[in-house]
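## Example pair
The file below holds two records. Each record gives the amino-acid sequence first, followed by its structure token line.
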Amino acid sequence: MSIKNCNNIMDFRRVARRRLPAPVFHYIDGGADDEWSLGRNTEAFDDYELLPSQLSDVSAMQLKSKLLGQAVDWPVMIAPTGASKLFHRDGESAVVRAADKFNMIYSLSTVSTETIEAVADVGQCPKVFQIYVLKDRGLTREFVARCRDAHYAALCLTVDTPVAGNRERDIVYGVTPKPRLRWNNAMSYLRHPGWLYRVLIGKDLELVNVTGSNAADKIETGVAEYINNQFDRSLTWKDVEWLAGEWDGPLVVKGVQTVADCRNAANSGATAVMLSNHGGRQLESTPAPVDCIAKVADALHDRLEIICDGGVRRGTHIVKALALGANACSIGRGYLYPLAAGGQAGVERGLMLLKGELERTMALLGCDSIEKLGQGYIQHRV
């Protein structure tokens, strides 16, 4: 199956499964513990029904929106995910180039395989940097300064990782940000010699934002282990206030799900929240992000932009999230599967299909503008 025959995001998943070594595919695909939250993130969208308004003029559709102070062509952004060269040789740049063609926001992970500066130079689309408040505050300050110098539009602070989630598929297959070759997965790697060459000879998986920082001299073991040891369990909302002061620009807090935490985010200087359970990869048994939108929107829509992050696979999912009160959605696996399946061309086709589904759904719903979507168009299924 080629990417030309992919008609939806899950078709790309099937292609990605064939093109990646099994351990790497499961690294994209897996979640924490029993993976209940992982599955629920998408399944929860089925609990909502759309209410069409018939005989409405939908001859001119308006998908343009504004997010994090940036004008975008549609209310979907690229979520931050680590080590994109793990999935395709062209890595983060391939995704940025695709995002640029769709004039959407691209988010770069701290643990990316391309630098803050290199990504900033690719295309004209707005860039966001996903950041942690690390034990080494000097390293965090350095990232902030580099993002400012590279004209990033916003920072996205991840707050749901005081420790790593229990990702059992990663344990079984030996995949960490730096994959380990084991006898039980050796044949799968050997069936993908190009991938092996890139990783073992080309060293494509170097986490360059860290190795190229002033902290490089402090790394005594592996980079991934160094980063894991930098996660600070003592963080509080005071640390968010500190980061907001250091950055003094649009700030997203990613990994919150309750009204109380979203209110704390607003009070601490955040301008947006990303309702997220880390793709079902951290705390198991958390609610699907789509189920968190309405309460947060009712309480804080006038103080925060709300981004639904998790489980988005269809244009109908985007419409449902926006109708419930979100300002935008972000996609992670929704672009990683296409990236693994076909690089930049795969991502472009995946985005084209998703945007087409969004426009078609709105037309059938009888709503000609993103701004008009609201709770009158949706109901919870009884």
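Second record, same layout:
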Amino acid sequence: MKRFSFFIPFSWYFVLFASAGWVGIVWLGKTESIPDSAFADISALLFKLVVYFVVMLLGLAFVSTCVSLLYFLWKKKKTGIDFRITTPSSDETKTKQPIDIHLHPVLKPFLGFIKMRIKYDKTHFSEKFYLIKPSVNKFFSTTLDGRYNWLLPEIKEYRVDKVIIYFEDFFQFFSFAVTINTSSNFHTQPVTEPEKMMNVFPRKTEETSTRIEEIKKVEGEHINYKNFESNDDVRRIVWKIYAKNKELVVRIPEVLDPYASHIYLYASYFSAFPFAGNDVIEIPFLNYYKTLCWSVYKQLQGKGLEVRFVPDQTIPSTTITNEQEQVKYGISVSQWHRDKELKEYVKPKDASVVIVSSLSDIEQVKQLIEQHGNDISFVFVPLTDGLNKQHIGDWLQWLFVQQEKDAIAKFKTSWSLSLIRLKVAKNEKQLKQLLEQYDKSTVLQKIG
């Protein structure tokens, strides 16, 4: 019934207007007036003028909408419709994902509107929406370009199966719908959250075949010396050695190495717990983890380092050429899994930063710290921070006062009743205690 309502050719505005108009006509028809008087003649004339004027406006609205509809159907049959969705890069919003839509050819009704409804992931439909157009537009155009800020529940890649195009008049009384099939897809993006600063040092590369443009400083050995040369700083002379051996030598406190400026970032999506069918783990926890993974990546980039993100799962091929946008896309489409464990995923000789979550296997994290803790920095994301803690007052309101207002409230209630909650909370507490004892670790906290 809901899907059938998408194709009703008139809106509730028209139903209300027609009902009010009919009541008005009946009421005026029953109004007593003095027969054969000037007042009766003038009233009848004004009534006819109003009726004719309304009919003309409705006719103009109907005809202009039909013309746009017929033009679209003709072009759809003759040349086809070009419909594209792209995802612009944006860190500006936490709740809405901007998407850019291109539609050609299409003709907007006179002073009317073109609206859309998107069917995605085979079974879901968006709300009917109107595109926000660029500030500069031609008065007459057969191309529709605009942006829609879409409130979507998950950070992932969405696949668009079908689009419903609505042609509506300037009163929004008539709404003629046409469907077009498409195979477009787009992905929602994580945004940057402020978090603790991390002291991360790059790992020297095994192969130095590629130079970078900017030389980075790398810690050197303080026990190394070399003979003094004319271009050396005299402040580096080791006078104790000169007093003993009468030789001028200088200490080498740092080495300028143009090949040791990058870091490998590992983010594990492995879950030591079964999560299938748990909406809390698969939606808000995953969204929160992706957001903080992207935030860590951006923070490391802000240090002037070349960050190489290593995914732990197969990322779909894409036409994105920008390396940063490729990483963002990889994070967006990643999912929890139980295939590749932490010990199989992390390469200790390369890893500089490893991100783990509350779902990670504590024994494997502990083993990695004990064996390679001097070389690797760990970032821990407590997933339960992705939901606000629920107090007894919230339970009382849920039971006796009000219904849940949004998805987050439903997720909090669902998590409170989940059988796996205590196991994940225990594992999260143990991981936090383990990493807080380790100097080169960062426990990210929820902001706000």
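Notes on the second record: The radius of gyration is 33 Å. Confidence is low (pLDDT under 50) at residues 204-223, 254-259, 389-405.
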